[in-house]
Design goal:
alpha+beta, Porin, 2 domains, two-stranded antiparallel ribbon, 1 helix, 10 strands, disordered N terminus
Length: about 200
């Protein structure tokens, strides 16, 4: 009986000893994951401008962003750029629209699980260029507006995530071919994130 009790106690102690490093390793990985908050994100999606851009209001978009959220800061920061393009026929002439956007602002992520929601907001500088065949050739303008976005990242691994992002730009106006255009938009994108 004493031998059985001794074997049982020895087994429990050895199990605890084996599990302890695992728990310690898990805690270390969690700490490292929290500390690794620098991320480069690639965006692929669709941008829908206001009706002033019709029939070029729907444009494909790609972009790259960088964000950093130090663990001890209440919020982090982000910056990046997007490029969009579309072409169509207007009044019998082919017209191409290309926009470039540079942005910077604050960002906040939530949770440490697989699904990690986030929000961000700041200012954007939008450059839009139109190229038309015919008597009216090229025109462009630059506008400034406020953006806000949010989404969810799904951590596939500690270094890689996939997710989706919804973004809006507000209060941006352009003058193209003598007409005032609202350059506000909604954007829907898939996001691939690389942490380091």
């Amino acid at each position: 009986m004493k031998l059985a009790a001794t074997i049982l106690c020895s087994s429990l102690v050895s199990c605890a000893a084996v599990q302890s490093p695992s728990g310690s390793s898990s805690a270390t990985e969690s700490t490292e994951a929290r500390a690794r908050m620098s991320k480069v994100s690639a965006y692929f999606g669709l941008r829908q401008f206001d009706d002033d851009f019709e029939p070029l209001e729907d444009q494909g978009t790609i972009g790259v962003g960088y964000s950093m959220e130090p663990p001890k800061w209440p919020v982090g920061w982000e910056a990046g750029f997007f490029v969009t393009a579309a072409d169509d026929e207007v009044g019998g002439f082919d017209v191409e629209s290309v926009t470039s956007e540079f942005y910077g602002g604050v960002r906040k992520s939530f949770g440490e699980g697989v699904a990690r929601p986030y929000v961000g907001a700041g200012l954007s500088l939008l450059f839009a260029a139109f190229d038309a065949e015919g008597p009216v050739d090229e025109d462009d303008d630059i506008g400034i507006g406020a953006y806000a976005h949010g989404g969810v990242d799904f951590q596939i691994s500690p270094l890689f995530s996939l997710g989706f992002d919804v973004r809006g730009l507000f209060g941006t106006e352009l003058e193209i071919y003598g007409s005032d255009l609202d350059a506000n938009y909604w954007q829907y994108a898939l996001v691939a994130g690389f942490s380091f």
